[in-house]
Amino acid sequence: MTTHHHPGAPTGASPGTPAAQGFAMPAEFAPHDACWMLWPQRPDTWRYGAKPAQQAFVEVATAIAESETVFVGVNDDQYENARVQLPEPVRVVELSSNDAWMRDVGPTFLTHPDGRLAMVDWEFNAWGGLDGGLYFPWDKDRRIRAKIAEMLGVTRFTVPVMLEGGAIHVDGEGTLITTEECLLNPNRNPDLTQADMERVLRDTLGVTTVVWLPRGCYRDETDGHVDNLCCFVAPGEVALSWCDDPHDPQYAISREALAVLEAAVDARGRRLKVHKLLQPGPLHIAEDEANGIDRLRHSHPRRPGDRMAASYVNFYIGNAVVVMPLLDPARDEAARQTLQALFPTRRVIGVPAREILLGGGNIHCITQQQPRP
């Protein structure tokens, strides 16, 4: 695979960094060896003891397992339940977590032109720590990357910067997209300027161009993760969550992002082609949905009537499938057709995903691809 690597290390990478050693983060649409997930069970995130969410996670894992090996990490007390519910080809491993957002607590994998795999172990504070974070403690989540590095026997680069996997997307050819709202949020890295953060991204992920979108989706409790708003579907092409209702706060956010994307030039000198995915809904938490969760002091409140940050951009690109969330019967099919046209060589599978959304994220947020080196 030479398509997603720059020849040699990018110029200007700081000595000793992953980029200086020739490592880079491949695009999600490049080939994978596996997909990593975690098992939901947290009663203050998932209603009714997480049983409805577990069913949704099983459907996501089943769909992805058609195209690549799926590992699901489980706390010991849920191991047997998960093993019974998940299909036989899925590999269930004991891997304790505080919650099930593998995109954010799992490794950011890097590959090297010589065929080596490595990973980045970022800092993690549950999306903001005690200033807007979603739960406390997050000690088990913090150990997940080190444990996966042990399991795979790969180099782990420790980077003392607060960053979740959902906050970044790359094209594998030197370009990264992110949001200012998340990466420059004072509850993540208050001492880093935008230029500092760009240097971290270049040194760690082997990118040369960073496209900064102002903010993520409306009411996104991750402080605006880019993976809910915009993602690369091919080099030079992105999908953007769209809204046509001028009275919806998402309307301005999507247009603001479009203006930045249309003005951007990627690492290869291309203008970006933007594909719009009309958002579902708007969707709100129903009363019975809010009533099924435990209310704990350190947990993010989920109240009846709260708007959810629903987006069709939060899909997973597998080797042979694209797994997308089904969220709104009026919009699901149009989104599926758009994605099928964007990924003609993959089968687009829709999975009912409202239960995942109720927990605060979606299909991309609960998955993490392990690239084929």
UniProtKB/TrEMBL annotation:
It comes from the Bacteria. GO terms for biological process: putrescine biosynthetic process. InterPro entries: Agmatine_deiminase, Peptidyl-Arg-deiminase_porph. GO terms for molecular function: agmatine deiminase activity; protein-arginine deiminase activity. Residues 1-23 are annotated as: Disordered. Its EC number is 3.5.3.12. It catalyses: agmatine + H2O = N-carbamoylputrescine + NH4(+). Keywords: Hydrolase. Residues 8-22 have a biased composition (Low complexity). Gene3D superfamilies: L-arginine/glycine Amidinotransferase, Chain A (3.75.10.10). The active site is at C365 (amidino-cysteine intermediate). It is an enzyme of class 3 (hydrolase). The keyword Hydrolase applies. The keyword Hydrolase applies. NCBIfam families: agmatine_aguA, PRK13551.1. Belongs to the agmatine deiminase family. This is Putative agmatine deiminase. It comes from Halomonas urmiana.
